[in-house]
Specification:
6 helices, 333 residues, four-stranded mixed sheet, alpha+beta, six-stranded antiparallel sheet, 3 domains, 26% helix
């Protein structure tokens, strides 16, 4: 089949069966076979300026939001010792003349004396925002950050191997990571063919564009992989559990049609005390954030697909109670 040009700009071109970006080509050989030789330029542009902060119990509780420690790495392989909770100076502009070499081992060091002293003397540590962590509840100290393998995904810091460990120096904790990780094998040509071990939705889509057909089939498989053992949809590859906003938009856009029963279970997971749960986020939890009402759009979409009136009767009191709370607390006349 002749490849029809669908879209083109200065950076890339999209054809009916492939996407081309310079020497990078993603090809749909058939509706069930995709390949790509794409190699990300990220490793060659990895900044020497690293932003990070420390954490107790995988919580964002060291510094105010938007305030981070930083290091500008030259040739050294360890940070200065940074005191937990100390306000850092403003960071310099990120350098553009050179990038950090690949697989660069670097040790972050932190002085936890302030925390440990408060835990010993008071039985708790009081964070910058007034919240407290009891001595008995301390599970570990961690680092979060902007540069891979660091991550701002606080709830998964332990799983990512970002726990700080005590050193031979009193009150000093450290962790060594490999910045700008590079694996030649991992970035070699990739391909996709259906995983025959999975049970996927039997819906099929056919068009004159093999690329679209293959991506549709890939999306069905990705959806099947996102179903957790408790019959809910996982938020993402790096985000376990159900998040209200994320699942609501997914249901609204596709999952109400493809997996209505799993969509119902996922929405039920985000109900507590008869009200929709507002997840935390960079802006804070309810009432600072109030995007939980996207749940209502998803619930209505399920009804439109299924016509299930019992579902409407189930969700109506949840929606009514949620909106009543929001009107009383959030509405500004």
């Amino acid at each position: 089949m002749h490849a029809q040009l669908l879209y083109q700009n200065n950076a890339f071109s999209i054809y009916s069966n492939k996407v081309v970006q310079g020497s990078n080509v993603a090809m749909a050989h058939s509706p069930t076979y995709l390949s790509s030789n794409y190699k990300s330029p990220a490793n060659s542009q990895f900044s020497r300026l690293i932003s990070f902060k420390f954490s107790i119990n995988e919580k964002d509780n060291e510094l105010p939001i938007g305030v981070n420690h930083w290091v500008l790495i030259d040739t050294e392989h360890q940070s200065p010792i940074i005191k937990f909770g100390a306000t850092p100076p403003l960071p310099p502009p990120a350098p553009t003349s050179s990038s950090l070499p690949t697989n660069y081992a670097y040790t972050f060091r932190v002085d936890m004396s302030t925390v440990l002293q408060q835990l010993e003397q008071q039985g708790y540590y009081q964070a910058h925002d007034g919240s407290r962590v009891a001595k008995a509840d301390v599970k570990g100290f961690y680092i979060a950050g902007s540069a891979e393998p660091l991550s701002w995904d606080f709830v998964n810091l332990h799983n990512k191997g970002l726990q700080l460990q005590p050193t031979n120096d009193k009150n000093i904790y450290s962790v060594t990571v490999v910045l700008n990780p590079y694996n030649e094998k991992a970035i070699s040509e990739k391909f996709w063919k259906p995983d025959t071990s999975l049970t996927v939705n039997k819906v099929r889509y056919y068009s004159d564009q093999p690329l679209v057909d293959a991506l549709f089939n890939l999306s069905l498989e990705e959806a099947a992989k996102a179903v957790e053992p408790d019959s809910t949809f996982r938020t993402g590859a790096k985000w376990a559990g159900v998040w209200t906003r994320d699942i609501s938009y997914s249901i609204l856009l596709a999952f109400a049609y493809h997996h209505p029963e799993i969509a119902k279970v996922s929405l039920r997971k985000k109900v507590k005390r008869g009200r929709i749960v507002q997840d935390t986020g960079s802006g804070g939890a309810w009432p600072v954030s109030s995007d939980r009402t996207t749940w209502i759009l998803a619930a209505w979409e399920i009804y439109q697909v299924t016509g299930d009136e019992a579902w409407l009767k189930e969700v109506f009191p949840i929606i009514a109670a949620t909106l009543a709370d929001d009107e009383q607390t959030l509405y500004n006349p």
